[in-house]
Amino acid sequence: GQQVMQIPQYQHVQEGEDFTTYCNSSTTLSNIQWYKQRPGGHPVFLIQLVKSGEVKKQKRLTFQFGEAKKNSSLHITATQTTDVGTYFCAGFDNYGQNFVFGPGTRLSVLP
Amino acid sequence: GAVVSQHPSWVICKSGTSVKIECRSLDFQATTMFWYRQFPKQSLMLMATSNEGSKATYEQGVEKDKFLINHASLTLSTLTVTSAHPEDSSFYICSAELTRARTDTQYFGPGTRLTVL
Known about the structure:
The structure holds 2 protein chains of 2 kinds. Chain A is an all-beta fold.
């Protein structure tokens, strides 16, 4: 079945450093969504990418969808303590039947 | 790793019927489970928080009499869509919370696609 992996599983950074998490699917995705879950909270939708090679930015966050639509990345520039949380990628397969979450990357930011 | 299953994976029903969706944590006990809804190509929307042995907490705008949630054991929560109508057609996803070393992690089920004719 379709599998979505994320690396790294955990990341500890010093405040001000950059951070990147990578999402890789075993099959082509029709779209990819990114969610952020703060400790004790629920996944909050960040963004959706649909087009091959698409790049979107939200302030310090840059999201990219691979050309083959099988991988994606989230890059945070100059992390802040408010960036702490788990970042999930998720997407539908090309048939729109299966929506699969990645296991998440847990980010810790040290002040 | 922690595994969460949902049953059924997809269901088609006639308008007016009720549909029950099960969410199970297979290898861990989950005091808290969550139910989400997702419309096509949209993001997840939290519907309710299901706590074992107590009443579920519903998000604003979610009808508790329409979406009945029962969390009778530490490994099972059920969502019943009562008197389903075509507008209830959606993708329903549950997650189960695992508390380990003071850290709560949600593990998501594979989802249930409901189509109401």
